Amino acid sequence: MNHFITLQADLVSKFGANVFTFSTSPVGDHVIDTNKESVPALLKYLKEYAGFNFLMDVCGADYPTRAKRFDVVYHLFSTTGSRRLRVKAQLSEGESVGTATVIWKSADWFEREAFDMFGILFAGHPNLRKILTHHQFVGHPLRKDYEADKQQHCNSVTPIRFDNTPEQSGDQLDSKYMAINIGPSHPAMHGTLRVMAELDGETIVRAGCEIGFLHRCFEKMAETHPYNQVIPYTDRLNYCSAPMNNVGYCKTVEKLLGIEIPQRAQAMRVILCELSRIIDHTVSVGTGGVDLGALTAFFHLFTYREKVYNLFEKLCGARLTVSMTRVGGMAQDAPDGWFTDVLKFCDEMSDGVEEINKLMIGNKIFMKRTEGVCPVSATEAIDWGYTGPLLRASGVNLDLRRADPYYGYEKLDFDIPVGTKGDIYDRYLVRIEEMRQSIRIIRQVCKNMPTGDYTVRDKSIVLPEKKDVYGNIEGLMNHFMLVIKGLRPPVGEIYDATEAANGELGFYLVSDGSANPYRLKVRPPCFAIYQSFPTVVKGAMLADAIATVASMNVIAGELDR
Amino acid sequence: MSEEKNNSATDAATHELAKSFAFTTKIDAIAAWGQRNALWPLPYGTACCGIELMSVMGPKYDLARFGAEVVRFSPRQADLLLVAGTITEKMAPILVRIYQQMLEPKFVISMGACASSGGFYRAYHVLQGCDKVIPVDVYVPGCPPTPEAVLDGVMSLQKMIKDRTPRPWRDNWQSPFEINGNTVPNSLTSSNTYISKGPRI
After folding, report:
1. B126 and chain A: CB distance < 8 Å anywhere?
2. Could you tell me the CATH number of the domain that includes residue A60?
3. What are the E-state strand segments in A298-364?
4. CB pairs under 8 A between A and B
5. Mind giving me the DSSP string for A190-224?
6. For A123, A217, A344, A515, which has the most beta carbons within 10 A of its beta carbon?
7. CATH of domain B42-163
8. Of A148, A305, A319, which is closest to B123 when you measure between CB atoms?
9. Residue B46 and residue A138: Cβ atoms within 8 Å?
10. Is residue A473's pLDDT more than 70?
11. Is A161 domain-assigned?
């Protein structure tokens, strides 16, 4: 709070008193409202003098009844003191705001997305074209007047093309070089990524990537479904670690509602999150191995993943997309003996991690393929908006579980591994060590499992248990009322983030007091990471580019949403 | 008369001989036996189902037990297209091209709700089922389906091949994207006038 007051004084003395409106939302988010002309200067000042070194997210929001219908929203983060700040400006149709790409590289794809989804224009953006929807798509789907189920068919594929950056020659292919297209149907592209590269022999002269092949309209779906029905959609964002998305989303809604969930629910969520982190890293390391030619690693690692699937199945019946959380707590309590099973798994897994370590990390071929390949420095990583294991591999010690703790992480004893070089090898080292630390966390939580209820019992938030619905009139009435009326958070907005397996998973939620979210923006970690790909692989070998994609652990579900 | 007798004696002898080392069958049946026990899948995993498909291929469920372990990412080497995951409008032309490049006999399994019908994504960028663009032989329900369900789907397909079940959905199939060269059929554009309006970016 102090920081925000000092910042206000600074900004007023620098820019004058009438430019900004400062406010702190009821949930504690600091917001600066400004006009569109002041945005670039303000962002530059905030980065250079106020210590906000991360641009986490740029997004739009549509309010068709307003005179200036669009909001463009910037979410900043400062590593000193883990402060967050939201900057908002209003725009009307056809107006443009100065681009932030000159201040942060990470703004590139986020601004393109805001353009694609809302038609918000960013003056000075080097490459303002569609990113998620296909090239024949007309209109901007996240505008409120675009119907959610209005499909537009696509009948062709775009030719090989590269993004316009000042030093490159735009779409023109250079006949000196060999242009190659990889994906989206290619084993190393994990199904839905498309990479285009211009090669000089085996060396990449320039690269480009096309995304959106799995754009499933998550944000539009969220606007057309009640709060609790959005939870299954969040499962399918990062489907390698589905429960973490549930937790991130529910935590955001709960924070907006102003409720704190019971200790037991918090502990269960921590266990689910850490189990998910382990299996997410197993897939990342396993498929990373496959992309380098080590098929055995995949088969071996999947045995551990199956063990976690068994735990999930025992907990709730589903294997992959568990949807175990509800707004207000968990869907049900864990069955008898589940925590003992989890502890048993921890024992097996800690042997497993050492095996994986020997199999992959100590393997000479693996080391030669990954050490010193496509490194990303700490400054670059921050500029690109890297979070999670990749940022830590580059040497930045930022983990939201420590920097901005939630669910009792502050009381747990665990280490945060940090790399030095930011190359591919460091990324895997960090992931392997994080698996060890996750096991440590799970053991601590399981051993001190709080007793008590697994959900809050507020009748306007949580459905009563089935035995009450069928057993007494009050339960039946409460059930009826909540189903008919819906869960209605107060009018307001919030940005909240959790540390997911790939990095900061943020949700920006706007509530208009109705039963559906008015706007739900996901800040997916690998979206920011993957946009650096063309720059990172420039000058590297083609095979190194494959290894880089694998090490970034790009999950199309959250990349394209 | 004696010649006939001789002949039947030879036949009997041949028959006896054949019993010791050979069996009789129909060409079709033996071809179907080969086809169904050596389905080489092309795993077209795009989303969550792709992760479950990894489990199907993985050590616990082991699709290899059904002769389908040779995963090929080249359509020319595969005879089973396993569509695992959401197919978006952007992806549809690519899926069709992959299907066209596969050699006969070819089969398609649609794994999961999204691939079969669009699932719970009744949304502006999601194709409402991959059968809108390619002919599907087996649909596997689930979101995502359990590996057991996928194995059941593969076994159903094997039974279809064995029984030579007619597959009329394939009979008049043609690519929705290129007929007589490169023209786009009306069926794809007439339902939405949106495409022709406004500037394209």
Report:
1. yes
2. 3.30.460.80
3. 325-326, 329-330
4. 167
5. TTT-EEEEEEETTEEEEEEEE--TT---HHHHHHT
6. A217
7. 3.40.50.12280
8. A148
9. no
10. yes
11. no
One domain for residues A115 and A235: no
Q: Compute the mean pLDDT over every residue in chain A, rounded to the nearest whole number.
A: 87
**What is the rounded CA–CA span in Å between residue A522 and residue A507?**
5
pLDDT tens digit sequence for A63-80: 999 888 899 999 999 988
Q: How far is A453 from chain B (nearest CA, A)?
A: 30
* Strand ranges, E, within A194-297: 194-200, 203-210
CATH of the domain at A542: 1.10.645.10
Residue that terminates a domain, selected from A106, A123, A140: A123
A-chain residues near B101 (CB < 8 A): none
Please say if the pLDDT value at position A412 is more than 50.
yes
Helices (H), A387-524: 389-393, 400-403, 424-447, 466-471, 473-485
ipTM of the complex: 0.86
A16 φ, ψ to 5°? 100, 165
Candidates A184, A215, A309; nearest CB to B125: A215
Model confidence at B199: pLDDT above 50: no
Range of the domain at A6: 2-123
Q: Does the structure show a pLDDT above 80 at A91?
A: yes
**What are B45's two structure tokens?**
């995993």
Question: Nearest by CB to B86, which of A216, A235, A299?
Answer: A216
**In chain A, which residue's Cα lies nearest the Cα of B50?**
A191
What is the total count of domains within chain A? 2
pLDDT at site B185: 43
Q: How confident is the model at residue A176 (pLDDT cuts 50, 70, 90)?
A: confident
Interface contact A141-B125, CB threshold 8 A: yes
Q: Which of A123, A157, A180 is the last residue of a domain?
A: A123
Domain assignment present for A193: no
What residue ranges do the domains of chain B occupy?
A: 42-163
Q: Taking a C-beta distance cutoff of 8 angstroms, is the pair B8, B47 a contact?
A: no
Percent of chain A with pLDDT over 70: 98
Contact map slice: B 49-68 vs A, CB within 8 A: 50-52, 54-55, 58-60
Task: Please report whether residue A151 resides in a domain.
Answer: no
Confirm or reject contact between B44 and chain A (CB < 8 A): yes
Angle at A239 between CA A344 and CA A246, to 5 degrees: 80
Classify burial at B19, counting beta carbons within 10 Å of its beta carbon; exposed 0-12, middle 13-18, buried 19 or more: exposed
Instruction: Please tell me whether residues A117 and A232 are part of one structural domain.
Output: no
Residues 74-113 of B with CB under 8 A from A: 85-86, 88-94, 97-98
